[in-house]
Specification:
By secondary structure, this protein is mainly alpha-helical. 47% of the residues lie in helices and 11% in strands. It has one domain: 2-Layer Sandwich (rbstp2171). It has a two-stranded antiparallel sheet with strand order 1-2. β1 and β2 form a beta hairpin. The two termini are 29 Å apart.
Amino acid sequence: MSLADDFFASRPEKDLRSVEIERDEGKIITFYFEPLTFRDLSKLQKKHPNFLNEQTADAMVDLVIMKALDAQGNNVFDHGHKFKLMAEEFKVIPKMFGAIFDSASEEEQEKN
């Protein structure tokens, strides 16, 4: 087995992270997501080329659509939901985006 084979074979399992969003009457909706990968960034940058320098509302919503999962690991949103997501109260999308985008740095902090 080569070093590369060993490297990929010993990849840790992806653990689901979560973010809770409070709705009307105190109802909490929990969204799950896997940690952000370079594949995710590459896909997002095809649509939003300057994403790493400028996180637009469109890019944030697209990332939420790509990454938000239910408890069973199924995608919650599709691009048909984008219009409704763009109409959400300002604090909702940045909270979800922040949890997803910060997942990469959280993993490094946990190791240290």
